[in-house]
Amino acid sequence: MRLHRKNFHFMSILPLLEPVTRHWQCGCLRANVFTVPHRLRPYRCLSTDSPAPRPHIGPNTVEVLGHSYPRDSQTNVTAKILSKVGRDLHNKPHHPLWLIKERIKSHFYRSYIGRWGNPLFSVHDNLSPVVTVEQNFDSLLIPPDHPSRKKGDNYYLNHSHMLRAHTSAHQRDLVRSGLDCFLVAGDVYRRDEIDASHYPVFHQMEGVKLFSNHELFARVEHGEELSLFESHGRRTPQKQETHTLEAVKLVEFDLKQTLTRLIRHLFGEELEIRWVECYFPFTHPSFEMEVRFQGDWLEVLGCGVMEQQLVNSAGASNKMGWAFGLGLERLAMVLYGIPDIRLFWSEDERFLKQFHLPDIDDPVIFQPLSKYPPLLNDISFWLPPEGYAENDFYDLVRSIGGDLVEKVTLVDQFTHPKTQKVSHCYRIIYRHMERTLSQEEVRVIHQAIEQAAEQELGVEGRY
How far apart are CA 240 and CA 40, in angstroms? Predict the structure, then answer.
């Protein structure tokens, strides 16, 4: 009898779901590993609004945003990366990342209004990028042995603090502060390869929406008889063990409808969209949205139903909700035709003035600056017996060459047949965004990289 009643109520919500879901194309299952992606009391300690001393790495401490963090064996943040902290490109008026953020914010403000006429979603775009390791990983249920925690992939100030790897690091604390609907935007930091679409500092925007029992089922026939939660349930590919299937389907519907409206607002109403099932440690079920853009399917965001354990830990155990996250650079590069991620950090007025628009929704396509010629140099070395990581080398190149380095590619690997020593050969492409580089300039930088690689990474040069 109980099973029959549940089936009856699930069927009763189908008319609410059908108008939107019938237009979505379902993708096949794909197992993604999360690599993507502060205490809020008192709030004033977290804001990057007020001026602070320039970040600095001393012999024993890392100074950043007016706070001092003792160095230890986990410290791996570099001066080059710290120099980006506080730049806040997403808050710089008329910057392309600011344009994208403001378009998303404006859409949510206009589309989702509370009962008193106020915007339903609050926006937080000035939270400090310095977070605890617990906030960045444990609060999101990321296991202690998960590869996303690796020192080689993150920028640690010490064992307990780091530069956030995703804006999700603030999720639990914002929910704990009493917020049910919010957007977070900010700079995030990850050690990564070097090419035109990857940079160790980029910008994310994410959203969270929580539902009470009444809020979710108010429009459902006999909704007062339905519940968010069930006892003795089991986890399936469609739901978590504590959630009812009816609740999950409605939350999933609201999530996909919200994001479909957002992305079509940005790309156009005729945009073709499909959903691909995936895996994140902090949501289940989880999805990626892909859009048909210039003939190819392009992933633009990840999302899902929040893990109830995460919601419970934030003091909202009577609610369930959804969360999504997207990269601002990815959207800006696609929407505005920006070919190189380094351009976002350019101070060249020829770049910046193209985005001084009368209205944030005005269309604009980036007009390329003069393409200055590249200079290519190779570097070869024997790897040490242990402890070498490619991201360490990329970080070293970035620290010395800065934004003059356009791309680094591993072009050859060789294992000596007798000694079994391994050699790597990397090709480094140098190109200035605003002028022609000379061979002498590049030679000085390249030699500095060779010397630093031997001294800091323990490699043996083959120059």
Answer: 29
